[in-house]
Here is the input.
Amino acid sequence: MTPPPARRRRTAANGTAPAHNLPRRGTVRRAQAISTYGVGSLIAVDHESFVVSGLDEADRSWRSDESPVVHERRLARLLDVDFFRLPPASDDTSKDGLRVRRFPLMHSCPECNDLQPHRDFSPPAGRSVCGTCEVDLVPSRFVVACEAGHLDEFPYWQWVHRSPDRDSTRFGKCGGKLRMRTTGRTSSLRSIVVSCTCGQVPEVSMEGCFRRNALKDLRLTCRGARPWLGTSAMDPAGCGLPMRTLQRGSSSVWQPVLKSALSIPPWSSGRTDPLAEHWAKLRKYDDAARIEGYLDAVFGDKEWPLPLEEIMALLDAEREEDPEDDKAPSFDHRYRALRNKEYERLRSGNDESEQSRDEQFVCESPLGDPRVLQPLGITGPMLVKKLREVRALKAFTRLVDAESTTDAKEMPLSAQPLRWLPAMEVQGEGVFLRLEESRLDAWEKEPAVAARVERMRTAHQRMLEQRADDPSQAVASPATPRMVLLHTLAHVLINELSLDAGYPSASLRERLYAADDMAGVLVYTATSDSAGSLGGLVAQGEPELLDRTVRSAVGRATWCSSDPLCMETEASGTVGTNLAACHACVMLPETSCEHNNILLDRALLVGTPEDPSLGFFGHALPLDASP
Here is the structure.
């Protein structure tokens, strides 16, 4: 990573920009540049703090020779872009890397106790030390953010003077300088004291700065600051929303909005990539003559990447993913249509012997007899021998859960619209299975099952409404008996497969297909490093091994080291969105779960001591089973 270039850069005699000669501040993995340290996030490097720069200056922030292009047409159409780019690599071959900007700018010196912008300490070039004391400066522990995604410095001067004055004067109108010291009496905020040398106000501790209305009481609202786009970048639309104080390292400061898709036929062979930038325009034409005219204008005398008949077939396949009876489908509807198509392809398969070596999706039926799984209510196991997932960073949020946000609260990665987005591709393997529809339908209709799930759905819906500006426009909770059952089953399977298949649980990921016409789970490799595809996961998909794996996984779920508290709790997790679920039994690492470890209940798998029939698998295993 490197800090951003100066606004006016020197050029060589021939008018070209010189080679970058900016200091490196640290390294991150490519996957972390999407999920952990993406655009707009804060990153700590040694004793310094930075914000990852935006994508507006794509030719300088993300060098094209260090950011390979990735194609996935189905996801690109959903996100309205032409293609994706991998983050710049952080290795010895990287010439530039990922750009960052210093943030927060307010620093304190532990020796002289001055609290002021970083540049006012007159630090030596390339170092973050006090020019007078020669000790390391400490970035401000506190920042402020609003639900629209803006990020700003904590208003120390206003906090000390109890004033809403936010004019252009650096420290207000008193002319004094701020000081910060720690009394050392306790480790609480009461021991952090800020004062002003003007002598007009007493020193004030930081106690109470995290109250929801702490800054609102000072009549301070958000200015629309976007430091990842520049130190003086303000949102032209303004803001005015209430601000919240956050710890610089809090997870609420930055949450990525990630969207993913599997590469499935007819887009998984790579033959369509040369037309990536033209599909959006080709889709507007509904007859072969107009498509032929457009391609002639684009390629001239050159040979087309694909024959006209194949292009027409691809456009027809693309239109099949559009939701029916909806002239203006929402993003959620289109995303569900994308999942529906994946579910159909996972059910039907894609035999390797019928495909070329470039095919990125190979899904075959197991060699063994799948009927051994019928007593468990499982059907249709499939071995996904080759799988490619593209995971794109669509936007990010602050203070708001990225899984339950609306587009209005998502902060884009650049000030101007771009025709590409950052993304990661994962190539690996997986196991797919479905639940038997007739048995699942009968189980869902049980009053005890519906009542138990309704408690979780109500708690989750309440949380979504509390986080929405308009409760009537809140996102509907996805909690249904089918969804909670599949989600919990995926978690116990991942824990079990991590023991049998040789993968760590953080390297496996779930992909749920839960709707009125879908009831499937895909467990697949979710990492792009050396634990990506070893073959051990597909081997566990053979019916005999899968039967043993499911029975062992469900058997482990019959007890928890936190029982009876875990099983008998009335509510657990975030504001009661879980029931019988904790970190000792079914919860997973964040990289493995699609729903942030909420909407889980192992009682729906195995039942309870009072009602064993509550569990979908209760008929197949004794309640007192042990692993």
About this structure: The chain has 15 helices and 20 strands. The mean pLDDT is 84.
